[in-house]
Amino acid sequence: MAALAPLKQVVIPAIARHSATVILVHGLGDTANGLKPLADLFRADPALSHVKWVLPSSPVRAVTANLGIEMPSWFDIISFGFTDNEDESGMLTAARSINQLITTEVDQGLDPSRIVLGGFSQGGTMSLLTGLTGERKLGGLVVLSGWLPLRHKFKAMAGPHATSTPIFWGHGTIDPLVKLEMSKESERFITEELGVPGQTDKSGIPKGLDYRLYEGLGHSTNYQELEDTKAWLIRALPPVDTPAST
Predict the structure, then answer these.
(1) pLDDT digit string (tens) for 88-119?
(2) How far is Cα 21 from Cα 68, in angstroms, rounded to an integer?
(3) Catalytic residue at 107?
(4) Which residue out of 30, 76, 87, 175 is catalytically annotated?
(5) Which of 26, 162, 184, 226 has a CB 3.0–4.6 Å from the CB of 132, allowing a cystine?
């Protein structure tokens, strides 16, 4: 298998002693710099001062659904229905590239349980594909306005820790791009087909799928969703010198 070129990335160091890393993956047409304000917002909370933020940028490619215009994209999108003629090869290549970022953190001494992978839209989709098919159990996944790809074969692709990896999933009820029905079908597949339990206890280390809908929100984020995401990250990645309640 051919070696992959390393992804360009923005790295924001931890304010305090580094003991956890969040990898944030951008959406279609964006770059790492588009997620930097979000990382800076989360980083400013003292409860996340021990977290390093890694923001990769995707390659530039022609996107079929956008009339073949070249733009940053983790994989080709054939149509904005997202389920027909998926770019499986492009998705798997992107997952390998993102997994290299995880490997780098592990090689530097970080346990995979201290790494959260997340993203917006296409980035959330790549986080699900990378995190749920890998061999390592991460500290969790964050999916904002994303969808589960390759559903026709995802169950066979799922890794050994797919059912036990915590997931925070936020989605707007009026998202015109990744429609609510698509999100709910993805949530149903993850819980019923993959067997990921729904999260009922919202204290302590997250377990299972924490799926939240935000009324009146489109293909974007809002204050409440970001506050919920931050609170989930604080629970998923507590400082190592602070015993976590379970």
Answers:
(1) 999 999 999 999 999 999 999 999 999 999 99
(2) 35
(3) no
(4) 175
(5) 162
